[in-house]
UniProtKB/TrEMBL annotation:
Full protein name: Oleandomycin glycosyltransferase
Pfam families per UniProt: UDPGT
Top EC class, one word: transferase
Keywords, in A-Z order: Glycosyltransferase, Transferase
Assigned protein family: Belongs to the UDP-glycosyltransferase family.
NCBIfam families recorded: MGT
EC number(s) per entry: 2.4.1.-
Source organism per UniProt: Streptomyces cyanogenus
Lineage: Bacteria, Bacillati, Actinomycetota, Actinomycetes, Kitasatosporales
Superkingdom: Bacteria
Molecular function GO terms recorded: glycosyltransferase activity
Amino acid sequence: MSGDSRPAHVAFFALPGHGHVNPALGVAAELTRRGHRVTFATTDRFATAAAATGAVPLRYESTMDGLPAKDSAADRPDRFGSDDLARVLRDLLRETVAVLGPLDRAFAQDRPDLVVYDDPSGWAARLIAARRGIPVLPYRTTFAAGAGWSLATHRTDVDPSHPEIMRVFHAVTTLLDRLKVPLGPKELMTGSESGPALVCIPREFQFRGETFGEDFHFVGPCWSERRFDGEWSRPGDGSGERPLVLVSLGTIHNDDVGFFQACVDAFAGLPWDVVMAVGDRVDPGVLSGVPAHVQVRAHVPQLRVLREADLFVTHAGMGSVMESLFFGVPMVAIPQMSEQRANADRLVGLGLGVMLHRREVTAASLREAARAVLADSSYGDRVRDMRGHVRRAGGAPAAADVIESLLTASAQAHG
């Protein structure tokens, strides 16, 4: 522990998805290392990862855990629309109603000193904390939202008066009235736009980062080593003399066999080592013409591979983008949904890689994009500069410092 901070009980809550859980794991590990007691509310799928940090998993049944994407790549718009938001809000409301009871009982029996929740989707934790008067700290796994810039106002085409959105709005209003919490429905549904807040990117990557005050703590990626991800050995002769390319579409929109076949065809004749993580829904056996230097696996330890990689072909989920930048790896971004499109636009704008539209991916376009990034040293130069910003942001230790300062302030206020 730092300063005069005393041991405390900190509870984490995140939606059960890798992009939501992974950024919090490193912070939980750092807090337990400092002597704090950590509870991590999660599902069976992530309980082992939570326990590996030294936290005590608080298991709950989720309505969203492990659900694959329900739409095809062709159906996904590049900008978030009213129908998209209505669907997300319905899912979050259903999840919140399912989780409220178990979370409330757990907090009643073992009251945390602070609740750190996934914003803007951690409705249940925020509601129970408000109901019981427990201090909270939101963390953002993607861009921060504030008066000067937010995804909602700058990157969406949403009509707030859309009938389905209004239906969820009224249902949330009813829920808030029943719980008697001092929160408005819009504030809960859109997330916090004021600090203090943790943001898991460096300020330099944030759109209009200069407009956010000092109570927005841009701590960068807070990942832990994730030793449970398994082992990996480099394909080819293992010498490291050939460029190494990692390919992954993440864990949700990763069932596009045509994309992975295009990658095989693009890289088969090149003197590179290639590692492809295709997920659980693509059978590697259906891919044809896979040469020895292209390794195809359901999952790979991404951090381990990125330590050696020269290029990352990625869906541009923010977690993957930050991990790539941490290790100084330029990217070919192929976003699969609107939020990832915003991430890809930002990395392209900063000169950290190039982007291909998912509907325009061919073996030829992939090969050309990958060659362009690897051949142009300016991409590597800019990525190394951003790597410095990412690492100076402080990661999990910086996030833990913020948490300890809030714990100290809360103790003094009630002391």
